[in-house]
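Write out the bound-state structure for oxa(dethia)-CoA.
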Amino acid sequence: MYNSKITGLGYYVPDNVVTNDDLSKLMDTNDAWIQERTGIKERRWVKPGSEDTTSVMGVKAAKVAIERAGIDKDDIDLIVFATLSPDFYFPGPGVQVQKALDIKTVGAIDIRNQCSGFIYGLSVADQFIKTGMYKNVLVIGSEIHSKGLDLTTRGRGVSVIFGDGAGAAILSRTEDNSKGILSTHLHSEGEHAEELALTAPGMGTRWVNDILKDNDPNDESYYPHMNGQFVFKNAVVRFSEVIMEGLSTNKLGPDAIDMLIPHQANLRISQFIQKKFKLTDDQVFNNIMKYGNTTAASIPIALTEAWEQGKIKEGDTVVLAAFGSGFTWGSAIIKW
Ligand code: UT7
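---
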């Protein structure tokens, strides 16, 4: 039986820094509220007119990961792209990456699991490698939120949270079963699909013809909607559960965690988990202060930064965990 191992990591964020004070010029908000409720100080938003799109940023992150993995682009057997903000409604960005990287005719899968997208993508890649079907899989999480947020006071409960960016990993086959992805755990609860959602345009709600016909400037359905407190309460429960599930599957306890990389949803959520599992500041990586919540990109960006800063060492037990829209949630337990 083969195992899969992360052999390369990369990330890319746009240069344009948007501070909380910048947002307070657009809507009724302030730095103190945002920092106290979320931990966010600033985020990156693509500049209007920039060349960066979700797929372009994904390609930039992927190029770094490919180089660090020491492989050629033509060694990639499959592309897995997680995003909630694709360049086009269809096709998904996986094929755009395939074109941009000029990788023959490999398969490209698009993952639609929002904040849990990278873990879902990692899990898909892991299965293909463990069964022996593929040797190298490129997994990307990339998002552009800034183009689709309600930047008026009406949207402040959502729009101050989200940022743009991309992260990527190369997952490669290894025959060393003591290292790599030990297990992944995926869950969802569709009952709460509309608690954090963007419902239009959608074939089940309002498609483009309806929107054009109504031409209603007060229509909020093309902005993300979030029942913040309800999402928060579910997040802390599900994060804890899915981390424990992963640890128990591998006969480990919370004391085995060397590095926890939580999806960067809210610093208060990460702090709750840290306290619950009695982890030190060095055992939990947070960068939401700089980037906000970048949904599918948040874990690969954080994982790359933690690795670049020397905070992940060979032999470490690394835990990834995410929760978000769907609801969907998941974890991955990795022996580095
Ligand atoms: O990544 C996917 C998973 N996402 C999450 O896990 C996010 C979970 N939820 C959260 O992080 C938090 O619920 C938020 C950060 C979104 C909101 O924080 P909160 O402490 O739950 O605030 P709230 O929504 O209960 O709002 C409290 C007050 C309200 O005013 P009133 O009704 O008390 O007068 C809001 O109108 O804060 C007001 N408010 C704001 N004030 C200044 C909401 N947004 C803002 C804002 N600036 N940006």
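---
Residues 78 and 137 are 5 Å apart (CA to CA).
The chain has a mean pLDDT of 97.
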